[in-house]
Structures are given as structure tokens and as C-alpha cells.
């Protein structure tokens, strides 16, 4: 079994450098307690602040470190005041997705007991679903390719979907549903599209249904994105694994984060065939940067997702055990309702939340 796993760490901008240290402490301790392979951190300078200083958002040397690592842990990237010449945000996380073909954006929608939630129905306190967002194509394909008419009368962007990526994405979703079914979850995959209006989505639905034929043990359904936005508020507990195009997933993942209490509780991963990036769903929050107020929970849970992925990839079940320890420690820290970060009206800052989770590890 592998005894050491290397992780490229991109703290990035804003609150990123604040939420990384407690996360690394928690992951290190969990790995030791579980007898998992040790974690070797390789810090990479990247992001908007780095671009402002050097003219590079993600240096070649940093990309090489990320490419050679077993996993990539990313905190937050981007600052509103720092832009590329075309006016777009500094977003090395998108460069990583494209460079490493990280087509499966995994966004868990899992509530933590003790955290204030927006839904009054008691079922909202025990949500456990996953939204899978395609992360390299769709409408995001147009990034850097916008066409503007010479007379400035219109602008157009291309949405691109490919069979190669779509088939891999859907297989990923069905395989995950099968794993979840074995663990007692429903084992159902819902495609979210707009096939009633846009022809490329009708084509995508056909690819989805073709893939579904190879998984007769998994229940399948399709839903239009507007209806899905409604249903994720009205009855989110009815869903298991959801899969969708890039832009739809970008929007609905924030809706899912709201169901969990906010972006501070929402982890994520972007996974490809050979690389993976793990990061919280939130941004760099420059308005509170340097004040110690940031909630590190989403960062910590993203680290747990990384441990689980590394464990499966390297046949290291103790790393999966460490991931479960972190998840349980987070749940235990919030269970009695006393630990309230600022977004919930409390005063628990970065250090307090990190310490509470660390103590629950034993």
C-alpha cells in the first residue's frame, strides 16, 4: 500500500489562506488516527493576487506540481478588483479543469445536524443527494471564444456537448448511484436538461438514455431545469444522484448549497480519469478576508472528499476511514447547535470551527 500521498495545495485569494491551515491539521490528524498513508503537502502560489504581482495566474511550475501530485486541494480563487484584459475573472480553477479534463463536478447536498436550515420540513435536516455537473463543456466552452459583431450589434457564445465527455459523465453518475444503492440509498439518476426547447439538450438526453440501458438496476428519470429548480426547493429529499450540463450545474449547485445552510457548508470536487481537484463551493469572500470570520467547514469537507477519492484510487481503505472520521467530526462539532459561524448569526470564526472539529477527532 502507498505510504505517502502528495497533495498540491492552492490557498489562493481572500479567505483561502485562512481556511487552509485548519483543514490541513484536521486531515493530517485523521490520516494518523486511521493509519492511512501520510499526506505530503506541496504549496502552490496561484490566483488573482499572484496575477496582480507577477502577471501569471497559475505559473507553469505550479501547474507541473499539480500535474505530478496525487490530488489537488484548492481553497478559493479570484478577486473582484483583479481581472484579465477582457474583463473576465482570474480563475485558475477553470484552467485546472480544462488542463486535466476534470469532467465530473461532484457537488454533495448533505445537511449537517445542528446547522440552521431554510426548509421547515423536518426531512430537510437529513438530505443526502449529489449533483454532478459536467465541468469542461456546455456553455462554459465559450470561455475566451465569445464572438462580438464588428458593429457591436450582438454577441454570441457557443455551447458545446460531446459524446465522448457525455458518455463518461453519465457512466460516472450511474456508477455513483450504484455505489450509493449498495449503501442503502435509492439508486436513482435524474438528468436535468432543457430538451423541450434546445436541440443539443434533446441530443444529450438521448445519450443519457442510451447509457441508462447498461444500468438496468438503477432507476432513471429526466427533468427540465426550470421544474428542477422548483422541486429542489419543494421536495429535495426525493432526489438521489442528479446530473446536468455545466451552466445548469453551476446555478443549481448554489441552490443545493442553500439547502445545506449556505456556501460555507458546501464541499465539492472536480474529477477526471487521472486527476481531481477538491475545493469548497464558495468564493474568496474578500469582504471578510483577514478577519478570521470565514467558516472553514466546506473546505474541511472537501478535504474529506479528497481522502475518500485517494483511498479508492490507491486501494487504501484506511484513507476512506479517515474521510469518514472527518465527516463524523464535523457532524459532532455542530450537533448541539452551539457552534454557529457568522453566516448563521453566531460568532464562531475560522479558528473556533477548526478547533471544534479537530477536538472531535480525538
TrEMBL record:
GO biological process, one term: L-leucine biosynthetic process
A molecular function GO annotation: NAD binding
The UniProt record lists the keyword Hydrolase: no
Domain of life the protein comes from: Bacteria
PROSITE patterns: IDH_IMDH (PS00470)
E.C. designation(s): 1.1.1.85
InterPro entries referenced in this protein's UniProt entry, alphabetically: ICDH/IPMDH (IPR050501), IsoCit/isopropylmalate_DH_CS (IPR019818), IsoPropMal-DH-like_dom (IPR024084)
SUPFAM superfamilies tied to this protein: Isocitrate/Isopropylmalate dehydrogenase-like
Domain Isopropylmalate dehydrogenase-like: 6-357
Cofactor needs: Mn(2+); Mg(2+)
Keyword Oxidoreductase included in the entry's annotation: yes
Keywords of this entry: Amino-acid biosynthesis, Branched-chain amino acid biosynthesis, Leucine biosynthesis, Magnesium, Manganese, Metal-binding, NAD, Oxidoreductase
Family: Belongs to the isocitrate and isopropylmalate dehydrogenases family. LeuB type 1 subfamily.
Quaternary structure and interacting proteins, as annotated: Homodimer.
Designated name of the protein: 3-isopropylmalate dehydrogenase
Biological source species: Tsuneonella dongtanensis
Gene, per the UniProt record: leuB_1
Amino acid at each position: 500500500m502507498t505510504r505517502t500521498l502528495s497533495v498540491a495545495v492552492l490557498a489562493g485569494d481572500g479567505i483561502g489562506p485562512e481556511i487552509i491551515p485548519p483543514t490541513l491539521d484536521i486531515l493530517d490528524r485523521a490520516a494518523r488516527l486511521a493509519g492511512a498513508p501520510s499526506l505530503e503537502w506541496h504549496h502552490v502560489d496561484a490566483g488573482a493576487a499572484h496575477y496582480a504581482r507577477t502577471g501569471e495566474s497559475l505559473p507553469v511550475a505550479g501547474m507541473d506540481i499539480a500535474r505530478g501530485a496525487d490530488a489537488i486541494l484548492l481553497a478559493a480563487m479570484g478577486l473582484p478588483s483583479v481581472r484579465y484584459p477582457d474583463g473576465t475573472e482570474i480563475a485558475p480553477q477553470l484552467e485546472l479543469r480544462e488542463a486535466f479534463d476534470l469532467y465530473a463536478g461532484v457537488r454533495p447536498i448533505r445537511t449537517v445536524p445542528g446547522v440552521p436550515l431554510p426548509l421547515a420540513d423536518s426531512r430537510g435536516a437529513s438530505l443526502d443527494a449529489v449533483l454532478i455537473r459536467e465541468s469542461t463543456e456546455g456553455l462554459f466552452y465559450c470561455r475566451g471564444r465569445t464572438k462580438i459583431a464588428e458593429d457591436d450589434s450582438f454577441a454570441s457564445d457557443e455551447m458545446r456537448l460531446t459524446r465522448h465527455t457525455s458518455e463518461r459523465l453519465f457512466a460516472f453518475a450511474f456508477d455513483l448511484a450504484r455505489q450509493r444503492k449498495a449503501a442503502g440509498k435509492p439508486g436513482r439518476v435524474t438528468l436535468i436538461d432543457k430538451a423541450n426547447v434546445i436541440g443539443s439538450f434533446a441530443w444529450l438526453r438521448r445519450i443519457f438514455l442510451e447509457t441508462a440501458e447498461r444500468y438496468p438496476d438503477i432507476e432513471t428519470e429526466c427533468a427540465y431545469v426550470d421544474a428542477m429548480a422548483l422541486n429542489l426547493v419543494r421536495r429535495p429529499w426525493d432526489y438521489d444522484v442528479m446530473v446536468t450540463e455545466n451552466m445548469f450545474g453551476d446555478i443549481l449547485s448554489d441552490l443545493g448549497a442553500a439547502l445545506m445552510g449556505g456556501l460555507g457548508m458546501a464541499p465539492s470536487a472536480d474529477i477526471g480519469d487521472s486527476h481531481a481537484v477538491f475545493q469548497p463551493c464558495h468564493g474568496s469572500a474578500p469582504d471578510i478576508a483577514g478577519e478570521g470570520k470565514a467558516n472553514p467547514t466546506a473546505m474541511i469537507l472537501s478535504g474529506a472528499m479528497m481522502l475518500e477519492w485517494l483511498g479508492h484510487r490507491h486501494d487504501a481503505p484506511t484513507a476512506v476511514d479517515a474521510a469518514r472520521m472527518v465527516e463524523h467530526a464535523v457532524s459532532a462539532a455542530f450537533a448541539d447547535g452551539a457552534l454557529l459561524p457568522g453566516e448563521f448569526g453566531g460568532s464562531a470564526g475560522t479558528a473556533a470551527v477548526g478547533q471544534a472539529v479537530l477536538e472531535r477527532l480525538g
